[in-house]
Amino acid sequence: MALRDYLVGEVAEDFVDGLLSRREALRRLGLLGLGASSAGLLLAACASTAPSGTAPSNATPSNAAPSTAPPGGEPPGRGPGVSRGSEVRFAGPAGELRGAWAAPAAGQAKGALLVVHENRGLTDHFYDLVGRFAGVGYGALCVDLLSAQGGTAALVDPAQAPTALANAPAADLLADLRAGLDELGRRVPGTKVGAVGFCFGGGMVWQLLNAGEARLAAAVPFYGPAPDNPNFTRAKAAVLAVYGALDARVDATIPRVDAALRAAGLHYQVRVFDGADHAFFNDTGQRYQPDAARAAWSATLDWFGTYLTAG
Q1: Using CA atoms, how far apart are residues 138 and 111, in angstroms rounded to an integer?
Q2: Residue 165 has pLDDT above 70, yes or no
Q3: I want to staple 161 with a disulfide (CB 3.0 to 4.6 A). Which of 72, 102, 121, 222 is the partner?
Q4: What is the torsional sign of CA 285, 289, 290, 293?
């Protein structure tokens, strides 16, 4: 699906799941280019087909991270000695880029990882996540794809981030991610490079593969929207595609990527985690599923251990 269509679907899905009020959903759909009539029809159609027990809420949810620990204990990879990433700036194709960077212990780099954020931008969750990857031996960089807007932190309205990403040409987003790969080459020289992305970021990982980014030795897109007509024949990465069994909208694209990965002759595996919905890995979100998150973290590290550190 096109990334703009995906972001429109995200708003509708959040409305159906009670994470956005109807007023807020209509406002965000308007910012994404839908007229009031079309937006209203979309929300009505989605609400009418929602499973029983998922009626939309009239409450306006908070976008802040929970103030208490998420259910199920500490998120996978977090623990003693694991530090949050730090802000970095580096040259991009159209000016300075911002990012979150975390380095592994000196002399212990297993590989380099490009981490691609969700449609909310470079939030605290991704500063935390690059630190978790560094804690298990990977130099990890998350490029702020909202750098042209002054960075994610400069955006006050939570609807600004997905709107700006939807309005950005796909070629510009890919160029910024490729600049991130260049920066990883400088920071973690001589190692293999992988990519991992979540939601919108998972879609951008698919876009990198579709564009034939041959520097990637491994890729793990988490519940990312697939390109409309994927062609991965120029890619070299071993791909672990991660999905939640309850995420019907994105799961509908699995046959498309499965066929394209098979046609490209890439080593790949599709994992669908039971009891998990879209964004189940993000411990700051309301769809976090700790058991599935731990299992997916383990599978991701096994994948990177095989295709980034072996040989």
Answers
A1: 5
A2: yes
A3: 121
A4: negative
Report the DSSP beta bridge partners of residue 220.
196
Give the per-residue pLDDT at 69.
53
Phi-psi region of 143 (alpha: psi -120 to 50; beta: other; left: phi over 0): beta
Q: Which amino acid is at 154?
A: A
**Torsion angle in degrees (nearest 10) through CA of 270, 271, 277, 281:** -110
Which phi and psi (to 5°) does residue 233 adopt?
-65, -20
Residue 91 has a CB neighbour count (10 Å cut-off) of 11
* Per-residue model confidence as pLDDT tens digits over 25-68: 888 888 888 888 887 888 888 876 655 444 443 333 333 333 34
3-state secondary structure string, the chain?
Answer: CCHHHHHHHHHHHHHHCCCCCHHHHHHHHHHCCCCHHHHHHHHHHHHHCCCCCCCCCCCCCCCCCCCCCCCCCCCCCCCCCCCCCEEEEEEECCEEEEEEEECCCCCCCCEEEEEECCCCCCCHHHHHHHHHHHHCCEEEEEECCCHHHCCHHHCCCCCHHHHHHHHCCHHHHHHHHHHHHHHHHHHCCCCCEEEEEECHHHHHHHHHHHCCCCCEEEEEEECCCCCCCCCCCCCCCEEEEEEECCCHHHHCCHHHHHHHHHHHCCCEEEEEECCCCCCCCCCCCCCCCHHHHHHHHHHHHHHHHHHCCCC
Which pair of tokens denotes residue 36?
Answer: 């009031």
